[in-house]
Amino acid sequence: MNDKQKYYNALKINNRYHNEIDIGEQLGFDEEITRRIISILLKEHKIQYVTNGICNYKVIKKRAKK
Question: How far apart, in whole angstroms, are the C-alpha atoms of residue 2 and residue 7?
Fold first, then answer.
């Protein structure tokens, strides 16, 4: 499993109890790597920026196709 997928899965499980940098540190990533992974996930529309809670990012749930 690559670093991006590890971080994404940890963000899903996090349920907004830890900030995004702490999640990366728990996985062994430094802040720079964590920011790069967040940037990639934002570009892929897998996460979104939100301003409430401890963690500033949340996983975007896939919508069912009509």
Answer: 9
